[in-house]
């Protein structure tokens, strides 16, 4: 016991800032003793963790400043960040200083502690994972979990569920593409209904901050448009992916707008201003320009994993077909050109689940 007291007091007196925090936090020493007692005593590992925790509490205890926490919540924040330091201190102390700093800098709210705790756990189990990639992956998965599909028809819901479960190129990877917004609290609802634009099969609306609505045309899904048969799962998947990318662009804009964090746009400067207009229905707009330039291979890769075993050209054609009717598409594929005919036939065959020109439907109908 004496040894524990000596060890703690040596940490306490090592630095005035630490001393100040310990003196000002009534539960800290009692909890430290409790923690040592329930974690196997003053082992070498625990000494490293304790040293790490005490050295970093002055930094972490002041990092809730961006929040409007009441005193109770501030205390919760301090307690959770101290637990985080004790639990991960030994692991963190072995990382390079810059990574340590990136991790500790993120401890700015109770929600962030939970996220960063999960990220560090993941890094612990996957030594090759970097912190940034791990953090982005977890936020992307959290957004994916936020997609509300309770008002979707069983067919579209089934396609969405399958997309969510893909291993390599699932929907979450769309959200990782640009870097991830800081506040991973976005809501996306998907419904069957009638999009605003009479020519559109689906659209995505910005409802309010961090809150988006994707509407997929009911008559298209049911196959009553022009007395066609219902579309195949490949066509529905392509539409869902396309709309989720729109939602992602809105999320990036909201992130900028809410937090003044424009790092998400570093690679595409000037585009964010165009997102502000929130109007992308038309033949020329910033969101579709970006999708056309950067996302077609990504959409194609997701489709390939969704329905493996088809030609790369086919996946690319279906991905590109979601840009149909846009000026970018028309410029690249002039009317009656062989490429355009092939893209049209491939997509139309999936839309109507019936042969078109040289194309036969490759997906499965779900109705
Ligand atoms: Zn679109």
Automatic annotation (TrEMBL):
It comes from the Bacteria. Residues 335-350 have a biased composition (Basic and acidic residues). Residues 335-367 are annotated as: Disordered. This is SprT-like family protein. It comes from Flavobacterium limicola.
């Amino acid at each position: 016991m004496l040894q524990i007291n000596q060890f703690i007091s040596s940490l306490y007196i090592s630095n005035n800032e630490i001393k100040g925090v310990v003196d000002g936090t009534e539960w800290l020493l009692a909890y430290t003793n409790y923690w040592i007692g329930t974690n196997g005593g003053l082992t070498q590992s625990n000494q490293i963790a304790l040293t790490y925790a005490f050295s970093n509490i002055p930094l972490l205890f002041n990092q809730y400043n961006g929040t409007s926490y009441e005193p109770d919540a501030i205390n919760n924040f301090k307690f959770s960040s101290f637990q985080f330091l004790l639990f991960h201190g030994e692991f963190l102390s072995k990382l390079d200083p810059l990574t340590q700093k990136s991790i500790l800098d993120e401890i700015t709210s109770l929600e962030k502690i939970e996220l960063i705790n999960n990220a560090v756990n993941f890094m612990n189990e996957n030594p090759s994972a970097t912190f940034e990639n791990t953090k982005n992956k977890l936020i992307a998965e959290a957004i994916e979990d936020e997609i509300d599909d309770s008002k979707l028809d069983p067919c579209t819901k089934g396609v969405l569920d399958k997309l969510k479960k893909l291993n390599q190129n699932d929907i979450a990877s769309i959200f990782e593409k640009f870097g991830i917004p800081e506040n991973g609290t976005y809501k996306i609802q998907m419904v069957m209904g009638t999009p605003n634009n009479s020519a559109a099969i689906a659209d995505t609306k910005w409802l309010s901050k961090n809150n988006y609505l994707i509407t997929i045309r009911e008559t298209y899904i049911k196959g009553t448009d022009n007395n066609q048969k219902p579309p195949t799962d490949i066509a529905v998947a392509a539409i869902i992916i396309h709309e989720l990318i729109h939602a992602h662009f809105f999320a990036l804009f909201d992130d900028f707008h809410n937090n003044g964090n424009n790092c998400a746009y570093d690679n595409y400067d000037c585009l964010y201003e165009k997102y502000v207009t929130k109007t992308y229905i038309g033949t020329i707009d910033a969101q579709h320009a970006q999708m056309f330039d950067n996302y077609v291979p990504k959409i194609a890769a997701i489709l390939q994993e969704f329905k493996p075993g088809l030609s790369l050209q086919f996946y690319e054609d279906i991905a590109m077909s979601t840009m149909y009717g846009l000026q970018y598409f028309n410029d690249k594929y002039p009317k009656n050109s062989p490429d355009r005919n092939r893209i049209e036939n491939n997509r139309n065959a999936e839309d109507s689940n019936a042969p078109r020109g040289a194309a036969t439907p490759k997906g499965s109908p779900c109705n």
